[in-house]
Amino acid sequence: MSEPLLPARLRRRGFLAGALGVGATAALTACTSNEAPSSGANVAAAPAAGNNAESGTPVTIGFSAPAADHGWIAAIANNAKAQADQYPDVTFKPVNPTNDVTQQIAAVQTLINDRVNALVILPNDGSQLTSVGRQAMDAGIPVINLDRIFDSPLAYRAWIGGDNYGMGASAGHYIGERLRTAGVANPIIAEVAGIDNLPLTEQRSAGFRDALQTYGFAVGPRQAADFTAQGGQRVTANLLQAAPRLDAMWNHDDDQGIGVLAAINQAGRNEFFMVGGAGSANAMREIQADSSVLKATVTYSPSMASSAIALARLVAQGRGMNDLAEREVPASITLASATITRENVADYLPLGFES
């Protein structure tokens, strides 16, 4: 999860682009004045430092992530390896994926003892893995923290991940606009969340709630599942039984969306439309076919793992991102969440991961 020619900000292994040496254009912004600089002002110009894709000092990058028992996580691991394979100067050293925090800590400690040149870590739990991130950084091994963030910036050199709040906001705006255009007053809007004790779920729900409020709408019945198809089917069946009428639904995760759709079909419900989350190929094919209640999904792309490897390589080699004026790789990069509909799904489908 060979790349077709897609919009630069969307390419699986290239959204950070010229800077990361994978062939697209970055869309990173900074706080600037709206006025042109006056004559003689100090203006920072990006140095012409060469192509980041050119080979540099050979480096070994360690990689640790949860077990690939979920389509999105599987795509994370696949993308990381595929990106590393592009570089002749990178030795990719993954450890066994695990959903056990203690085992993940032990695996990362093995990589630290092996003196890898950089680490990319998607922790099962950011808080519980913070200490091992600190161990690596204290040992002089830069850590690229992927998605689930550590508690302390001292535990990582750079963080890259999705915009959970923005994901919820994108879903809320799509639903709000569609209902307002249809002239629906006082709509009943359901939400099937992921795991409620995860900060990412709280952020997604907050973005969804805040976006709907701008239209004068509110979230109606809400159930939390567990990011699995089985959990999605179970909680959606309960939600539908308790809500005889709905106007719209947002499901946080396209993997659990398989079960959500199954429950909707079993209940024979089609009076509402649904928005998914993350951008799986399965969901996009449903949207393209336009044969179910699923009409859109909002992205949370596993391409972030590809870019994390690219960042780790640059940091380990002491290089910056040559499209930027600064000489150092940024400390934090947040991906934007796009809304995929029938009108643009063909552009995004090659990026989809299989649930």
From TrEMBL:
Pfam families linked: Peripla_BP_4 (PF13407)
UniProt keyword list: Signal
Keyword presence, Ribonucleoprotein: no
Protein's cellular compartments: Cell envelope
Residues of the Periplasmic binding protein domain: 61-319
Claim: Amino-acid biosynthesis is one of the keywords in the record: no
Recorded superkingdom: Bacteria
Listed PANTHER family: D-ALLOSE-BINDING PERIPLASMIC PROTEIN-RELATED
Similarity comment text for this entry: Belongs to the bacterial solute-binding protein 2 family.
Designated name of the protein: Substrate-binding domain-containing protein
Naturally occurring in which organism (per UniProt): Pseudonocardia aurantiaca
